[in-house]
# Entry
Amino acid sequence: MSFTMYFLLPNRSYAGDGTRSTLGQSVENHFAFAVYMYGEYPPFNEYNVGNIEWTRDMEGDVFNLGGDPPDVEDLELTPITIEELGERMRDADFIIPYGLPKAAAPPPDTCG
Amino acid sequence: MSDEKMKILHVYRSEPTDDVKKLVEILNRDRDAKEFSLYMGDPNYDILVQMIREADKTVSWW
Amino acid sequence: MSADPNKLGIFVTSPQHMRHVLGVTQAAVRVGMKAAVFFTFKAVHLAKTPEFVKLANLCDIKDLSICAASYQCEGYDVEDVPKGITGKQMATQAYHGVLLEECGKYLVL
# Structure
């Protein structure tokens, strides 16, 4: 049985692992979608971009809710509004608010 | 299809933001919706589990 | 296999809700439900807390796992198995899939 699920990712520290977790369910033959919220992106390194592409190959997708499109070659996230996301999630089997909510302030330089 | 409304439960781990409230509003349309807050005081987990058992779907927001 | 309505799956993705993980699991067991719990990413740090052993005592062995890759990403050696579980309970994201399919009720913490 295939489920439809949305991983909601509003915190940069959890966006990369949330993408991995999304892919984890894609390869289990579920329809899995990741949603980067508010421009809280993971590092778009080869690993994370590869996970995004693999998720899409498995009939999932990775959305951008409210963030400026990332300036990464050959990477286009699918834009989505809060209303569109809500309507899509009405049909979801699972909604997964992942990790932590968005932090109130940007990270200090000490985060590297 | 059954005429019975889907029972949806929203669990809040922190105070919901305006966007969470908007998503909840959309998800609740034409459904029988309930809420449970985990972030205020000492939650009664027995009540929460009972509500989860009664719900068709549970969404636990950050 | 259809999902068991008397089984609660808990997907733990936040490192700050061990109190709720244990409280909900204890309440589920009190009413005769089974609980299956999977810790991923930074939530694997919770496996190092005293409450984790209490949780392990409430779950069948096959119903409690942590993500082994996350555990290593967070700096632990995979041989350093948390108290309360065995090496067989160091799992992959596939365990989350099992939880979704087996559990009729589902909660993210």
In short: Chain B is about 35% helix and 25% strand. Chain B has a mean pLDDT of 95.
